[in-house]
Amino acid sequence: MVDRTACEERRHRADQAASASTPGAIEGFLRETAKEVLVALAQNPHLQERDLLRLLERKDLPPEAVRELANHRGARGSYNVHLALARHSRTPRMVSLPILRSLYLFDLLRVAQSPGVPSDVRMAAEEALLNKLEGLDRGDKISLARRGTGRIAAALLTSADEEVVPAALDNPYLTEAHLLRVLSRDDIPPLVVRQLAEHGRWSHRYALRLALIRNRHTPFGRVLAFLPEMAVSDLRDIGLDRRLPASLRNYIRAHCHARLGQKS
User: Fold this and answer.
1) Mean pLDDT of 9-29
2) Total structural domains in the chain?
């Protein structure tokens, strides 16, 4: 009997939520917790943009309610609602992925960096950003280099811009793995290698030092500074790499020989 009464009460509230027409009446349902009431509210034709946005701020919104909000007539021409839908963790992919095509540059970044957004949607937003990089002006590139994802920062390193490169190297999301992939590219700009070899954060990483020693653009003075702290076994492997100039290979072999001689 109690369950039946509660069910009838929820149905009654759902009917009220679906037909509420004044701001005050709608306000009373925005904090509702019952799924069927929230779904009914999301179908209410009287909801305004502010109401849709208030609902989409809720992380506990049922997926069925999110779908209804996406189809709501108040969402059709609203950029803010589209952005909120793209950033909501429960928005169906068939809704959020097409929205990405209409988002501004830094709103795409917000989607790509929203931890609650499904990973494939975040990756799609990141891809959309990467596809826009070439046509951006310098100011936007610098901003993205500083604030973007690690993958975006790594992509911007190839710009060879004297202001973009240091901003990207200081990006907090950039990782050693990103930089190792950049250093492995044949078309890496010499400017990137030089700044990386001098960088206070990255030039002390062992794996990066190995990659820098192997890179033809690394200043010889930096290579000399790295050698004493590298394992002889690793240096021997580098000394066999015929892609490096013979003079450098000979120097590395002599360095290894001298260090081994000191130990004996």
Assistant:
1) 91
2) 1
